[in-house]
Design brief:
Strand order of the largest sheet: 5-12-11-7-8
Radius of gyration: 55 Å
Largest sheet: 5 strands, mixed
Shape: extended
Length: 837
């Protein structure tokens, strides 16, 4: 396609300079031109034209033709169109300007050009430029009279001018240190005392992009977008493009996101992330002088997830521990499937500093903490993060207030619970109300001040002690050849009847050798050492207080003959001996093969492949169909195994497994976890569960029906169809064929019962489960001689038995008649007596 370029010149102003030059007038025309390309794009250019060969009349004629008045020589222009083709228009020749911003390009009319070494250079480096004037193309310029000068913005610069090839004038300029970020370099032509710009080049300077630093990322659990932020280095004074790059494991590098404007953060969408796997993330800054990358960040996006804060539900005091609290909380639903590590902070209302409690298990949901002052108001907050990764903490939860228990200055209605000592210097007190022996009492002493209650001191006491009500029961934890480890449960407080001072363990063997050991009451296990192997021992324990002790029941134990290490060594030795015997038997039985392995025989050349070699031509002749029709056939194609349709094919792969279908948290998991829990990754057993449930839902009587005959038929139908598909692939599997026949027989019995008892249910079951029921053949038995003889014998035995029991049966019938007559007579008498006269 040929593009036609037209130039539309809009005259802005005309300056006519009249001078003495062979009775010719010179003129300068400043014009704006627009170049229209084939695609409709218009490029504006401003041109200043210096011409010759016209007198004043010609200049006035040009001015009038372009719409300017000859008197003022400047006016608002009219739109005129001048075509640079043929005729009088050829007298317009420009000294020329280069295209602004494109170094080295020719001027608008091809008279001059400006070229620079590079339009973008490092700040402080050297810049070279050259301006070339084609004198033969610039009419009116005498050769040798052209002087080229330079201007950097408004500052003149000195260059070196010389004559170039082809009658051109060339001026070179070198700036040793360019210390401006942006400047325009102009090329001027001085002629007849007048300077005119003929070309321009724009130069920019700066630095390579600085290395971004402090890159950090946070995963937002609401939309699973990874928001990353960083800090930019010093300004490079050049246009710089910044992009966040990321690479998944064994994947190509992609652009995660691009920041908008001058921001130093952006968000990577979920589709580019790879959760629970490590990703590589970095920031890349690029300009014309180079590229800089930040430090690469290797993270799992879930490790930098910022969780939702927990919710404090309740704060309650603990009985008998008035300075302690029990705190409960609930984690956010989006974090319920994670293992969390939490922190709790609290402070008094007048205290600016926070107290911190660390290493709290988030899934516990409750904790206890002590050390709170009475009557003081506290403010609590909690935050959590993943325990498997040292990621970001969540925001602090909404605060919750708690006030320590108050102790009033007057006893009031609680005189049986505590008493007040008015004497502040007293160090002893006697408690008499409601005290019972053999019961433990928790006693707390509170210092009461004028406006506050101090920290209490707690202790436990008995008014009177006796031996425990019972001793703990011993349990054998482990036993060996010489050691036995015993354990027991502590005695409950209400059964101790005093403070347990010690536990004493006694053991004796069959020869009445008794030994004992005293155990600290804080322990709940003990190891008896130096026992004899394969010996029976009887062990019991005694729990003691200062008032006496109580023995437990005896525990019988027998020590082992060998330790576990000795048994393992014995089995290992026997195994090695067995392996050696097997190897010896193999060597004896396979003597010839063993001999051949160690002393191989020399091959016979007559049986080599070279002795059986036949030329190719002879092979083709031998294999031809005329000589041997049974050879040289192509290998038969194996039949492709047919795809056997399965009754499980209608299950959609996106359906969840049966065990996870009704789990509430399944809607908040990501796509990877949901795919792992769907039927796409499920086994045959999991699919069978879903299929069986679908068949049962079709025929069950109610939602709670799990064992009716219809449900049993549906379960057997799913099994039978699975067996049929398996036997089509493996027809020789007789074990599963036997199971299938057993299930079919059982289903046939169930259907026969339904057909006999509930025919409508039978029809509905066969229709819903697509079962074709066939009636069983009528019962028929082949008559044999043995069967006829046996039947006749049975009939004869039956008749003889009836004859023997006939007298007894007649006697019994007579007794029944007498009883019936007596009963009827009594009823008749009763009716006669009750009838009024």
């Amino acid at each position: 396609m040929v593009a036609l370029h037209l130039t539309a010149v809009l005259a802005v102003a005309i300056e006519v300079h009249v001078g003495v030059w062979g009775e010719k007038a010179t003129h300068t025309v400043i014009s704006r031109s627009e170049t229209a390309d084939s695609d409709g794009t218009r490029t504006p250019e401003w041109n200043r034209t210096l011409g010759q060969g016209w007198d004043s009349a010609a200049a006035r004629k040009v001015a009038e033709s372009t719409g300017f008045s000859s008197s003022s020589c400047s006016a608002v222009s009219k739109s005129q169109t001048l075509l640079s083709r043929g005729g009088a228009e050829r007298r317009w020749h420009a000294v020329g300007t280069s295209t602004v911003g494109i170094p080295g390009a020719r001027g608008t009319l091809g008279c001059a050009s400006v070229a620079v070494g590079s339009p973008i250079v490092p700040l402080g480096s050297a810049v070279t430029a050259s301006c070339t004037i084609w004198s033969e193309l610039c009419r009116g310029l005498e050769q040798g009279k052209v002087r080229i000068t330079w201007m950097l913005d408004n500052e003149p610069m000195a260059g070196s001018q010389h004559r170039g090839p082809g009658g051109t004038e060339v001026s070179n300029l070198t700036l040793p240190r360019f210390n401006r970020t942006q400047a325009k370099l102009w090329c001027w032509v001085e002629w007849n005392g007048t300077k005119q710009r003929v070309g321009m080049a724009e130069i920019r300077a700066g630095y390579p992009p600085a290395k971004p630093f402090n890159l950090s990322c946070v995963l937002n659990l609401s939309d699973y977008g990874l928001m990353c932020q960083w800090k930019q280095g010093p300004d490079s004074h050049l246009p710089t493009s910044v992009a966040l790059k990321c690479a998944r494991s064994r994947a190509q590098v992609v652009t995660g996101c691009t920041p908008q404007g001058d921001r130093s953060r952006c968000t990577v969408p979920r589709r580019l992330l790879q959760l629970y796997r490590q990703m590589e993330i970095w920031v890349s800054a690029t300009n014309a002088l180079g590229t800089a990358e930040s430090e690469h960040l290797y993270i799992d996006p879930m490790d930098v997830a910022k969780l939702d804060p927990p919710v404090l539900q309740s704060i309650q005091s603990i009985p008998f521990q008035t300075d302690c609290i029990a705190l409960t909380w609930e984690v956010a639903r989006s974090n319920a499937h994670m293992e969390l590590q939490c922190e709790l902070r609290y402070r008094a209302s007048e205290d600016p500093a926070w107290a911190l409690v660390t290493n709290i298990v988030g899934q516990a949901g409750t904790m206890q903490h002590c050390g709170f002052l009475f009557g003081t108001r506290y403010h609590f907050q909690m935050r959590c993060r993943r325990s498997s990764a040292q990621g970001y903490w969540s925001e602090w939860s909404p605060g919750r207030n708690y006030t320590g228990q108050r102790v009033s200055s007057e006893p009031g209605h609680c005189s049986a619970c505590w008493q007040m000592e008015r004497d502040g210097d007293a160090t002893t007190a006697l408690i008499q109300d409601g005290i019972e022996p053999f019961q433990r009492y928790n006693i707390s002493v509170y210092p009461l001040y004028k406006e506050a209650v101090g920290m209490p001191i707690h202790t436990a006491a008995y008014s009177r002690q006796k031996a425990p009500s019972y001793a703990p029961k011993l349990h054998l934890k482990s036993i060996s050849k010489s050691d036995a480890e015993l354990c027991w449960d502590p005695v409950p407080v209400e059964m101790q009847n005093g403070f347990i001072t010690s536990y004493t363990i006694f053991w004796a063997n069959s020869t009445a050798e008794v030994s004992s050991a005293v155990v600290n009451p804080s322990l709940s296990s003990f190891v008896i050492r130096e026992l004899k192997p394969s010996t029976l021992y009887k062990v019991h324990i005694m729990a003691s207080t200062v008032a006496g002790g109580t023995n437990s029941t005896s525990l019988t134990l027998v020590t082992m003959v060998l330790d576990d290490i000795e048994i393992q060594f014995l089995f290992l030795t026997l195994g090695l001996v067995f392996v050696l015997l097997i190897l010896l038997l193999i060597c004896v039985q396979k003597n010839g093969r063993v001999k051949q392995q160690f002393w191989p025989s020399v091959p016979d050349p007559a049986n080599s492949s070279l002795g059986k070699w036949v030329p190719v031509e002879l092979q083709q002749a031998v294999c031809s169909p005329f000589i041997q029709t049974a050879r040289c056939y192509a290998r038969p194609v194996r039949r492709k195994r047919k795809d056997i349709p399965s009754h499980l094919d209608d299950l959609p792969p996106t359906m969840l497994k049966k065990d996870y279908a009704n789990v509430p948290i399944i809607n908040s998991v990501d796509d990877v976890v949901r795919r792992l829990l769907s039927l796409e990754m499920a086994s045959q057993k999991e699919k069978m569960k879903i299929k069986t449930q679908q068949l049962v839902e079709k025929v069950r009587r109610s939602p709670n029906d799990n064992g009716s005959f219809e449900v049993q038929v549906a379960v057997l139908t799913a099994k039978i169809r699975t067996y049929e598909e398996h036997l089509q692939r493996h027809p020789k599997d007789k074990s599963n064929r036997r199971r299938m026949l057993m299930d079919m027989d059982r289903r046939k019995k169930l259907l026969a019962y339904l057909r006999r008892v509930r025919y409508d249910t039978f029809e509905n079951t066969c229709k819903q489960l697509n079962i074709q029921y066939t009636l069983p053949p009528p019962y028929s038995r082949r008559v044999t001689k043995r069967w006829v003889v046996k039947k006749a014998f049975c009939l004869k035995v039956f008749q003889e038995v009836r004859k023997l029991k006939a007298s007894e049966r007649l006697k019994q019938r007579a007794e029944w008649r007498e009883r019936a007559r007596a009963r009827a007579a009594k009823e008749k008498e009763a009716q006669c007596e009750g009838t009024p006269v």
